[in-house]
Amino acid sequence: MKILIVSTYDTQGGAARAAYRLHKSLLECGVDTQMLVQGKGGDDFTVIGSETKTQKLIARLRFMLDSFPVRFYKDRTKTLFSPGWLPFSTITDRINTINPDVVHLHWIADGLLRIEDLAKIKAPIVWSLHDDWGFTGGCHIKWECKRYKQACGACPRLGSSKENDLSRRVFLRKQKTFAKIQNLTVIGLSRWLADCAKESALFKKYPILNLPNLLNTESFAPFDKHQARSLLNLPQNKKMILFGALSATSDINKGFKELTEALLHIDSEKTELVVFGSNQPKTPQGFKQKAHYLGRLYDDVSLRILYAAADVMVVPSLQENLSNAIMESLACGTPVVGFGIGGNSDMIEHCKNGYLAKPIDTIDLAYGIEWVLNAKNYEELCHNAREKIVNEFDSKVVAGKYLELYSSLSVNFASKVISR
Predict the structure, then answer these.
(1) What does the longest C-alpha to C-alpha distance in the chain come to?
(2) What distances in angstroms separate CA 418 from CA 169, 252, 415, one per listed residue?
(3) How far apart are CA 367 and CA 408, in angstroms?
(4) Which domain holds residue 237?
(5) How far does Cα 159 stand from its chain's mean position?
(6) CATH number at residue 270
(7) Tens of pLDDT, residues 283-334
(8) Burial of 264 (0-12, 13-18, 19+ CB in 10 A)
């Protein structure tokens, strides 16, 4: 059985890392798998990317050009909106040339392909939803908007009051294209996103499953806290609060503002903050606590040491599907505090391995941080954190479930072809 993982990137962003981890886990299981990407950041020969300088230049241009129609909406928010309109993508041709038994789509925006190209894929398709884009008229984060249940239009992310706006047109293009795809299985990585997909007008006719991302729990495992702090030059006599994400301080969805408000209620004499994913800003953020900015960390070893150095990880995102940071932190035995939104409850068990604060209540977020830091059963929280991920999200456990799905789709597809 030949599997092809398709993603815009292999290393850039949480969705790309999750897709690549699945790809590597399948290889370790002896599966014939390749990964096809537009922007290749690593040097893994099993990942197929743009090969020539011209192809790499075109890939960068596609990313910029795909967002061009969005620029006509002057009142748009800063959240990502992808029209998926650029023609002349070679991705579907490359997919069909590889001729896999199953094509597994992951995050496919930034000009990777035109929506209509999806109907040209010949093999059965599995599509893992890393955000809302698959079932909306173009937005990746819908927040409070429910218009995806009907037909989008008057999009709040575009700042539009017109029904026949870009979001409606993108929605109708998806509707027309999806109707042509005969073998599509949709994966909600969290229970929450699977439920959203079931409620959507675009996906409600298709099989929708909940299968999570996976994690190598041998790579992400507890590490001596004292040694971890020595390696990172962090103090030994403080409670360390960890926060991080790609563009951690500039992406409004990551909750940096909410974290800042919560930290005002935390004892600054006993605690300090560690931020990764961003460098120290020119203008001080105004924390009461001393803040250590570690910038971007690019390898699992560094991340493991970082999680081990912290007493608590805070993930205050306003919308979250299935956070890599939560999964990684819990696997390393570090409890996590976040809002009770999205897929957070798939991993954080309230007052058992962390704390789920009321959405979007910064006072309760602060209480949750204090509760973890001062918990009398703190060691038990750490043990529970590790056990949760090992039992439910370990790479061997989850990869096996994906293999069962691929096998069933491949067999069903083959029988349909023979019956014709």
Answers:
(1) 73
(2) 38, 51, 5
(3) 47
(4) 225-392
(5) 25
(6) 3.40.50.2000
(7) 767 788 999 999 988 899 999 999 999 999 999 999 999 999 999 999 999 9
(8) middle
